[in-house]
Write a structure and sequence with these properties.
Largest sheet: 7 strands, antiparallel
CATH topology: Jelly Rolls
Number of helices: 4
Radius of gyration: 17 Å
CATH class: Mainly Beta
């Protein structure tokens, strides 16, 4: 995939949270042809894995495939899984750079999820791990099959729904991870696959930078 394919002009943002945090939806962040090409490239080139996680004391396969990319210092743990980053693919690095320009945030990592069909999902959760900080900005790009993104307020259970379309961008920031949880529910009727890329800034763990130098890696761009 060639570098530098992403347009610099984001589509208009639509706010989707009423309060207690910010979430903005960009319906056509990537033009359809670019989104098609990126989807095909990632589906083919990413070494997708199905991890085993423990939920409610029971070990089971995660209901989707994942991969973790980022700067060498961007180690990340969620659902009991420790993730050491794969080096950036050129296409991911290009998309990261565009997202930084569009949002004004910095991203040193990306979690990729492949939902093979409507049977794959992610349960209610918040991206509130300590290494993300108290008020993280998370940029989520959707490719492929449309899926409904649901948010539920932690205190009062209010629900918000947003249809994540092919080539769209959802940016969550402020108190959104503290006050709201989110999920992608199973929809058995969906037969096509979806790739989701969530870019974030992960705080370096102690001595991570030194280990990266020792390993011959660097987070320099």
């Amino acid at each position: 995939m060639q570098r530098g394919l992403f347009s610099e002009a984001p589509s208009s943002a639509v706010p989707i949270l009423p309060d207690d945090g910010e979430a903005s939806y960009y319906r056509a962040f990537l033009p359809a042809t670019q989104a098609d090409e990126l989807f095909a490239h990632l589906e083919r080139e990413v070494p997708w894995r199905q991890e085993r996680i423990r939920m409610y004391g029971v070990e089971r396969l995660m209901p989707r495939l994942t991969a973790w990319y980022g700067d060498a210092v961007a180690q990340y743990t969620y659902s009991g899984l420790k993730n050491d980053p794969l080096p950036w693919l050129p296409a991911l690095a290009d998309l990261r750079d565009r997202l930084e320009r569009a949002t004004g945030a910095r991203f040193n990592s990306a979690l990729l999820n492949l939902y093979r069909d409507g049977s794959d999902s992610v349960s209610w959760h918040a991206d509130d791990e300590p290494e993300l900080g108290a008020r993280p900005t998370i940029a989520s790009v959707s490719l492929g099959a449309e899926r409904v993104f649901e948010l539920s307020h932690v205190a009062d259970g209010r629900r918000v729904k947003c249809l994540l379309e092919h080539g769209s961008l959802l940016v969550m920031s402020g108190d959104s991870q503290r006050c709201w949880r989110h999920r992608i529910a199973k929809v058995r009727a969906i037969e096509h696959s979806r790739i989701n890329l969530t870019f974030r800034e992960v705080a370096a763990r102690p001595n991570a930078e030194e280990r990266a130098k020792t390993d011959g890696r660097s987070d320099a761009r």
